[in-house]
Amino acid sequence: MPRNDDVRFTSCSIKLPPLGHNSSITFFSKLQFTSQFLINSLMKPQKPLNFNFNLKKKSITNFFTNFPKPPNLLSSFRFHPPLKSSLLCSASLALSDGGNAESDLSGSTNQTVLKSPSQTQITSRDEERVLISEVWVRNKDGDELERKDLESEAKNALKASRPNSALTVRDVQEDVHRIIASGYFASCMPVAVDTRDGIRLVFQVEPNQEFQGLVCEGANVLPSKFIEDAFRDGYGKVVNIRRLDDVINSINGWYMERGLFGMVSGIEILSGGIIRLQVSEAEVNNMTIRFLDRTGEPTVGKTRPETILRQLTTKKGQVYSMLQGKRDVDTLLTMGIMEDVSIIPQPAGDSNKIDLTLNIVERKSGGGISAGGGISSGITSGPLAGLIGSCAIYHKNLFGKNQKLNVSLERGQIDSIFRINYTDPWIEGDDTRTSRSIMIQNSRTPGTLVHGNQPDSNSFTIGRVTAGIEYSRPFRPKWNGTLGLIFQRAGAHDDKGNPVIRDFYSSPLTASGNTHDDMLLAKLETVYTGSGDPGSSMFAFNMDQGIPVWPEWLVFNRVNARARKGLVLGPACLRLSLSGGHVVGNFPPHEAFAIGGTNSVRGYEEGAVGSGRSCAIGCGEVSFPLTGPVEGVIFADYGTDLGSGSIVPGDPAGARLKPGSGYGYGLGIRVDSPLGPLRLEYAFNDQRTGRFHFGVGLRN
Fold first, then answer.
1. Most buried of the four, 13, 415, 463, 550, by CB within 10 Å?
2. What is the value of pTM for the model shown?
């Protein structure tokens, strides 16, 4: 939250001193409150932060108000007129032995004062009724009010006090409270004058001043415009306490909505109609880390404190925000090395600041061995079609810096991938959260995506040896960019492992004519990721550029993009997606865009629609809840190579009579799982052929 440097910070609150019987009472008195008392009153030590956002307003309010208050402190600034108190007004009934109806009210001398019920025990005398002939509203000197609208406000507030009515002391006191409760008056004194026509009841009132200016202190993050707009309607008007209460609530609400530790701590009306508003904001002083074991006992941590602290967006000197704190907790948990994280705010000594303690419970081990299995959509035939087994040795917190090393092997009926990957999620000394990834990989994938099954029942695979380095960083909220340099050597091999340069139709399998193609690719990628809600959006753009370091190395440019948008339609959700790409230059045929399959055009086998230099694929689907985590889905897909299949080297699509375009439609079910949505779908293509598809995650 940016600071508002136009306003300086002080801290105080409303405090009303004890009053004597003859005190002249005003609604606002001198503010006497120190910032240390505010912090001590606002905070409960050792209470972990609650990030339940449905209760965030209640959490902040409790955090500020759950402590015993000093005598007479108005910790809540809502005006509540007491029914049995002389705190805000004098509720005694003065009898003046005057007889002259026009006598000066302030000059009456022989007065008999009846104490209000709040000052003595109620007796039968207090309940005696006095017949009132007239009811006047005057200023504190007994003269008529200059503003008749204020006189009307006071008279309209009266309920029991009417001409020719019999009143008790309690009736008068309650009407005094009603006048004060109207919000326009700082004090009210009821005086009874004995005249020739009977007893006249005079309410001597002191109106509030007219609002002429505002001084706001302590609002470091509260926008000046918000304060000005809140008070703008009151300029030149008599200050109304109820209106002030609404303004204070709106300011406190601004802090609550943003989860900020701030509130109005005091307000005072100065001479000349100037309102001084005191705002108290709890700034972060120090942040410390405490490592705990699973039983809550202190222990020695494996992660370096600076590695944890630099992940936090909460910084020293900022006004602490619960929302920002929750995001910081989520960020620490996504590092993958923490089991539990909590933030505890505490008063920072004698200052108006807070110290934050991060309680960290690390995972038992930063490394280990894992094994699993999966399905490859590229395998469409065979008794164990598509099944893949995998194992990995990994470490998630190298050197206590959250650096990750992963060595993995995946093996299927035809597919195999051996990969060594090292990732530094945040390069030390970098302020832009740049990550670095170094990868070495040896993979083998089926060549059927582009070249299909061979008529002679012989099959071949595409082998790739890849090594590269990539740098990635966020450059805007929800946007991430990646730059990389990748070397790749790729070639085709038969089922015995021998190099192959042509397929059954004599189409070339390499661009150079050699047993393998070498290329050095410069990679540029940008990704926009929405909130992940059903109605969110996603966009990704990728470009690879071949760099001719050696004359025989391939030079080509490949771009592709994909976008997805969700629309919530009552209980259902409509998802629209579009993807496409194009290649220019001398590229291997097996790098052509393969169209058709589980993540392309359903109803077709993988790559059965076409393979071209260009492609465009669209999809629309409607999902709807069935029961629990199970959803139903209806979908339709369309894909085309835009007539570019024939200009792929060797025209593998034309040799296999691929149509070049096609559509599919069908229905399926999805089940939420820790791996993502599990999809089982059945689709028909435009050839009236049906096919089952199984996948994990949303369709690309």
1. 13
2. 0.69
